[in-house]
């Protein structure tokens, strides 16, 4: 005997605390897809990226790791360029400097302009772009801040011993950028077990999970130059990594959304989602930006300077994309003016709520009929789906309207369908990486002497060279994290094959 | 065939002995809500979801793995949902009467693979029986440091002689999963761990000892030495 079916999610929205309903994937009807009304654009990516990434808001770029290689991707053009490092490429706030960690070894600083000028990466190029190799900063999860608005003094915080920051002087003269440490590494919040530290853009605040507390919630700490910290706000939730906006008044983070109403028991990949939330530090209000339902999820949102956000989207079909959204897109929507809990006050609101209810009937199969949910659901339909809904179900819509003493007009209804303004763009195809490039990209970050090794290849064979080849091959094929190379990075099978072959070619020369 | 059972019950006011919790202060129909929770007879360890202007969301594990209690407190009503493997019961208390409107829905069974609540329960029972301790470690091929950490936690668990259960991101792509070469890892399919906030970051780990699962996971990579310190302080 089969039981149930009430399968819907409550997605809470900031507007007067009412709920918003999102789709369930079980209903196999194209009408049942919701668009995110906050979405501005979406850049699909073909490889499988790491979830964590950062942006350079002045250039509309994202810095991410895809299948073991760091990249910078221009969200406007789709152009992508390899960067040094094995994971977590993080630019300074003004984009002049790129930081990448090497696990338990150092933090490297590169000249981004120099890196941009490189057509195909080589060890020599990366070496020439290296500005500083700070072996006193051996943590990971770095984030950066501008202590001076012109970017001449930056602060980098890592997870070392919980959290440690160090300040750096950055200067550019005659087109050449230099970086030098300004003071020692400074332990932050020394008496606390801190996780996932993220610094504000001005370096004065830090968001982190406080593991000393129960529950270990995400807190906002003020930072002093001596590393001492004070809690200034407790978000009360266990958030993912937090990003501060540019004026330090808002936060954005991802967090799991409970599917209390889910009546299936239970498949994580389909039954849990991470959604994006914006939190206002000035009044403690929260707004939910994504409407993920089973199978889709969003991670690691980052602010742009204009208070739009970028986050990574994992779609239901397994694809990845960088999505740009305006969290305040609906704030000025006239339809939402004077919207009060439990009632519609204008004809527009009434018509949209009818449209939303019809969608809920079809896609969620529930009698849940909150008017505000319905309006926001209608606003989440893309224009094409909304048009289909109106045309295919007009008689039901009419009868629903007449029960509320509203005479419906098809044209008016269609005119209220949201305008779809989401730009979907694909990444341009790239040339296959050559073994030489792969060798440079994967090995150059750690091996400053790579140029010399390359040089050795052209010299006559020696037993030392043979031993080096043996060891290099053993390391790239090892699964022991303390021995394998690239340290903290990974190679896919094709890359391992390419590198093995390339390294073998070093023998006997 | 669909069954949808709706009941309306009136709960008498039970003495609210000792049940207090600051996160639950000023919720509508507090007395009735506390009485209901007391009648279920176990301690609640509430964690907060993201709250919106006027709505508070909370959840708590119960004494049985996989069974949770959720609370949504809006300005004029409080909804308590008791969620078990087989049944979901919702009790809605609305001001001013605070009469519980009850909905019960039988749940649809889904065949699961990987590391499920059932396996978690078995792991904890085993741990209780043998007085053992261990770590459940969640990783994702889409978070490089979690892959490095998986190898390190393997090494550490061997060194310290503690249990280790490796589970991975249920949304991970197959090719990156294969490439990571982490053997004996199971797909994360435990609702209980998920409710504890396990999947907010990769890696995350959670400790258990003598059959007791720690309430909250530890998110983020810890290098080998740091991890050793943390494990030593916990187990």
Largest sheet: spatial strand order of chain A: 26-27-28-3-29
* Assembly state of the chains shown: heterodimer
Spans where pLDDT lies below 50 across 5 or more residues of chain B:
1-20
Count the strands of chain A?
Answer: 29
For the record, the CATH architecture of the largest domain in chain B stands as: 3-Layer(aba) Sandwich
User: What fraction of the residues of chain A are assigned to beta strands by DSSP?
Assistant: 25-35%
Estimated share of beta-strand residues of chain B? 25-35%
What name does CATH use for the topology of the largest domain in chain A? Neuraminidase
Protein chain pair with the most extensive contact, residues per chain = A-B, 79 and 76 residues
Annotated CATH homologous superfamily of the largest domain in chain B: Glutaredoxin
* SS element count, helices of chain B: 6
What value does the Rg of chain B take, in angstroms? Answer: 20 Å
Largest sheet of chain B: 7 strands, antiparallel
The best one-word shape of chain B is elongated
Helix content, binned percent of chain A: 10-25%
Low-confidence stretches of chain A: 1-26, 421-431
How confident overall, as mean pLDDT of chain B?
A: 86
Radius of gyration of chain A: 26 Å
Describe what you observe in this structure.
The complex is a heterodimer of chains A (about 500) and B (about 240). Chain A is α+β, with helices and mostly antiparallel strands and about 500 residues long. Chain A folds into three domains: about 10-35 and about 330-425, no CATH class; about 40-325, Neuraminidase; about 435-505, no CATH class. Helix content of chain A is about 20%, strand content about 30%. In chain A, the strands form seven sheets. In chain A, strands 26-27-28-3-29 form a five-stranded mixed sheet, with no helix packed on it. In chain A, strands 12, 13, 14, 15 and 16 form a five-stranded antiparallel sheet that branches. Chain A is globular. In chain B, about 30% of the residues lie in helices and about 30% in strands. Chain B is built from six helices and 15 strands. The longest helix of chain B has 17 residues, at about 145-160. By secondary structure, chain B is α+β, with helices and mostly antiparallel strands. Chain B has helices at about 30-40, 115-130, 145-160, 175-180, 190-195, 225-235, and strands at about 5-10, 45-50, 55-60, 70-75, 75-85, 85-95, 100-105, 110, 115, 135-140, 165-170, 185-190, 205-210, 210-215, 220. Chain B is elongated, with a radius of gyration of 20 Å. Chain B folds into two domains: about 5-105, no CATH class; about 115-235, Glutaredoxin. A seven-stranded antiparallel sheet of chain B has the order 1-7-6-5-4-3-2, with helices on one face. At the A-B interface, strand 4, strand 22, strand 23, helix 3 and strand 24 of A face strand 2, strand 8, helix 3, helix 4 and strand 12 of B.
